[in-house]
């Protein structure tokens, strides 16, 4: 539980607490955006690390949910599967075919 005095909309009455809440919300959005961008850039060997980043992000948002209020950002991220991009899929397929010989 927090020691915040909330108004009828669930927002802090104290101006500085509300400013902090908005900063956390903005930081959380930037983290979500960075995770999504990272997911587009990673290789197959980084999938476990990406899963761990997402897990830690969700822990972060859950711990601050009472302060920030519920957002759709973390809900979208929870259910978003890690997807391999086309170049990664092609690289994995080529690796599965065996070594590449020089021509």
UniProtKB/TrEMBL annotation:
<feature type="domain" description="DOCKER Lobe C">
    <location>
        <begin position="10"/>
        <end position="66"/>
    </location>
</feature>
<dbReference type="InterPro" id="IPR046773">
    <property type="entry name" value="DOCKER_Lobe_C"/>
</dbReference>
<dbReference type="Pfam" id="PF20421">
    <property type="entry name" value="DHR-2_Lobe_C"/>
</dbReference>
<protein>
    <submittedName>
        <fullName>DOCKER Lobe C domain-containing protein</fullName>
    </submittedName>
</protein>
<dbReference type="InterPro" id="IPR043162">
    <property type="entry name" value="DOCK_C_lobe_C"/>
</dbReference>
<dbReference type="InterPro" id="IPR026791">
    <property type="entry name" value="DOCK"/>
</dbReference>
<dbReference type="GO" id="GO:0007264">
    <property type="term" value="P:small GTPase-mediated signal transduction"/>
</dbReference>
<dbReference type="GO" id="GO:0005085">
    <property type="term" value="F:guanyl-nucleotide exchange factor activity"/>
</dbReference>
């Amino acid at each position: 539980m927090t020691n915040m005095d909330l108004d009828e909309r669930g927002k802090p009455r104290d101006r500085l607490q509300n400013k902090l809440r908005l900063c956390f919300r903005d930081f959380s959005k930037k983290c979500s955006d960075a995770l999504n961008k990272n997911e587009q850039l990673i290789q197959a060997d980084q999938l476990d690390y990406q899963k761990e980043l997402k897990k830690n992000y969700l822990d972060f948002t859950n711990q601050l949910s009472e302060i920030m209020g519920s957002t759709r950002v973390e809900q979208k991220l929870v259910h978003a599967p890690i997807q391999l991009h086309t170049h990664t899929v092609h690289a994995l397929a080529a690796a599965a075919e065996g070594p590449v010989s020089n021509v």
